[in-house]
Automatic annotation (TrEMBL):
<protein>
    <submittedName>
        <fullName>Topology modulation protein</fullName>
    </submittedName>
</protein>
<dbReference type="InterPro" id="IPR052922">
    <property type="entry name" value="Cytidylate_Kinase-2"/>
</dbReference>
Length: 75
């Protein structure tokens, strides 16, 4: 939730670099609720599906920006 709020403030009334032209940053109460509920409502099912995929594919779960950067630095 913190990162979503930070991003909202940083790009308020602007287009984020990773979004299409004319798509301004907006966050409403429903989206914040979805972010808040995600760890309990959606994540367990997604992890279960990823576990099934990992039988055939290598699945890597990166949990923080630092982990992403360390992973990318390997290449």
């Amino acid at each position: 939730v913190y990162r979503a709020f930070k991003r909202m403030m940083q790009y308020r009334n602007k287009t984020r670099p990773d979004m299409g032209e004319g798509c301004e940053e907006r966050i409403d109460l429903n989206f914040l609720k979805w972010i808040w509920d995600y760890p309990n409502s959606k994540r367990p099912d997604i992890l279960k599906k990823l576990e099934q995929l990992s039988e055939d594919k290598k699945v890597i779960i990166l949990k923080s920006p630092n982990e992403v950067q360390r992973f990318l630095d390997k290449f």
